[in-house]
Sequence to fold (292 residues):
Amino acid sequence: MPPICPSDLSALHQLLVACGDYASQQSQQPFQVFEKGVDDYVTTVDRLLDQKLLAGMQTIFPADGIITEENRATIEQFRRGDRPGGHRTLWFVDPIDGTDDFIQGRDHYSVMVGQVIQGIPAAGWVYAPVGRHLVWGGPDWGLFEQTGAGAPSPLKPKEPPFDPTQGWGMVIGDKDERRFGAAIARRFPQAQFLSLGSFGLKVLAVITGQAGIYIYLNRRVKLWDTTGPLALARAAGLVCCDLAGRPIRFTEPDVDPQTLTHRQPIVVGWPSYVEALRSPLGEIAAAVGLVR
Fold:
C-alpha cells in the first residue's frame, strides 16, 4: 500500500523531477563550489535546490518533519525528540546526491527523498536527471520506475548469480576502494569493482543486478544519503546490515544526533552475497583498521 495518497505522490514526483531537471540544466552553467569539510563539497545549485525541496515538501506534507542536507536548522527535528523512533513521520532530503560527480560534469548524481516512520525507512525516491529516470517504492508498497514522460511501471529486481569462482560485481565508493580495495582484491580475486557517484545509484545498481553487493565502510554517510535508497533496497529483498550482521538503524546510538551520520559500516546486498562475504569483509576491515 502506498504510504502517501495519490495527489501527494503526484505532487512529490513533479517536485523531484523539476528540481532534478534544473540541476541538469545548471550543470552546463557556471556555479560556485564550497568546501564543507574534508573531501565534502557543496555548490550553489545544491543550496538552491535544498530551499526549493524544503519549501515544496513542507507544502505537500505540512504535518511531517522535513530534514534537508543543506539546512542545518532542520536537524533539530531529529534532536529535539521528533526522532525516527517516535510517531511523527520524518523526511530526509538530499538535493544532489553525488555532488562530486555533478561538479566534475559526470552523469552519476541524483535527487533523493526518503521517508522514515517509527525508525524504519518506509519509502524512497531516487531521480537521476541525466537519464530522466525516477525510481520509487517501499517495503510494503513495491518498486516502480518511470523514464521521462513515459508511463510508470513496476521495477523488477534482478539477483545476479553468485559463483565465487567466476567474476562477480561489488559496488564500492572511491574512498573505500583506496583504503580497502587492494585487500579485498587479494581475498577475492574474482571481484569486479563498480563505482558510481550517488549512494542511491549505487544501491540501484545492486537492485538491478549490475552487482551483487554494495559496501560503504568509511562511516561518513548520513541519513539523507541512505533513507530513500535503503527503503528501495528493503523493497527489493536486499539485506541491509553492518559488518556484524546487525540491521542498519536510523536511531541513536547508531546515528550521531548532531550530524545524522551513521556510526555503522553499511552492507547492502542480495542474501547469497551477504552470507558469503560479510564475515570475510569484516576481517579485512578489522585488519586495515576499521572497528566494527
Remarks:
- The chain has two domains: 6-154, 168-288.
